[in-house]
Specification:
This protein is mostly helical. It has 16 helices and two strands. A two-stranded parallel ribbon has the order 1-2. Helix 6 crosses helix 7 and helix 13 packs antiparallel against helix 14. The longest helix has 19 residues. The N and C termini lie far apart (about 40 Å).
Length: about 280
């Protein structure tokens, strides 16, 4: 798996120089150069943004990194039963335009199901204008099967979702963190942060190693790719690009909060009807 070599070939095939690719991906040309030369291990967010700039999907990328890896990526139905990235984006834009109405809808969602006290308290105090990037949203118990179900339905995924899948897969396989470290070469501390959704800089090489250890091949990679399609849109830099079509750090926190709230509704079986409310309101 040599993403740098693949990236170089894909860029040259399009007749682009590094600056053109960097500008299209809204990143520093030096990062593109270091990635192509293998001088850095790119994060999955970086890989997703570069691939989006090149117009390449995960299905197209995977065999370029491993000819034996053929994936079928689920189609995303923005009117289907799962809360999608497009739904979250519409809600953010709605909250920016109509903060009072968005706060009212948020209050209704909070009344729809029994959340953990920690989630309810944080949600009531943090929406919609004073969100901090440092907030950590309490996450409900969610089975690996439910995570996979959301993925195949085209739903947006957050780091906790993929982490819940990895943790339950590891336990099902009888691995401790230490034994999985020996299998994958990923330190137990990184594995722990991945499983709890606290790893901020998820490397492509890390996800690739987990995917090679798991079954079916490609599922872990697909889950984390879906996560990165969300997190790559959050601009955490101090200089916000005027042309950037993603979210500010505060808007990104609102997206994470919305999806976590939706997970609580799913966990409590109280989600029916609320997806239409979110879609029609925004």
């Amino acid at each position: 798996m040599d993403f740098g070599a693949w990236l170089y070939q894909a860029r040259v095939a399009r007749g682009w120089d590094m600056r053109a690719l960097a500008q299209t991906a809204y990143m520093d040309a030096g990062l593109v150069s270091r990635t192509e030369r293998g001088c850095t291990q790119p994060t999955l967010d970086t890989v997703v943004r570069l691939c989006q700039a090149l117009g390449v999907s995960l299905v197209e990328l995977a065999p370029g990194l491993d000819p034996q890896l053929v994936l079928e990526q689920p189609e995303i139905d923005n009117l289907g039963p799962a809360l999608t990235l497009a739904d979250a984006d519409r809600f953010v834009r709605y909250a920016v335009r109509n903060p009072d109405r968005a706060r009212g809808l948020w209050a209704q969602l909070l009344e729809a199901g029994p959340y953990s006290p920690a989630f309810r308290a944080l949600s009531q105090t943090a929406f919609p204008t004073n969100l901090s990037p440092a907030l950590t949203w309490p996450y409900p118990p969610l089975s690996a099967d439910r995570v996979v179900e959301i993925y195949h339905a085209g739903g947006a995924l957050v780091p906790h979702d993929a982490g819940a899948y990895v943790r339950q897969w590891r336990q099902h396989e009888g691995h401790s963190l230490a034994s999985l470290e020996r299998v994958t070469g990923i330190s137990d501390s990184v594995l722990s942060r991945l499983e709890t959704g606290r790893e901020r800089h998820i490397k492509l090489a890390t996800v690739w190693a987990l995917d090679e250890a798991g079954t079916p091949r490609g599922l872990t990679l697909g889950l984390y790719w879906r996560v990165a399609q969300l997190t790559a849109r959050i601009d955490r830099s101090r200089t916000y690009h005027a042309a950037w079509l993603g979210w500010s750090a505060a808007e990104g926190q609102l997206v994470l909060a919305l999806i976590n709230l939706w997970r609580w509704l799913q966990h409590q079986g109280a989600a029916n009807g609320w997806l239409d409310q979110i879609r029609f309101a925004s």
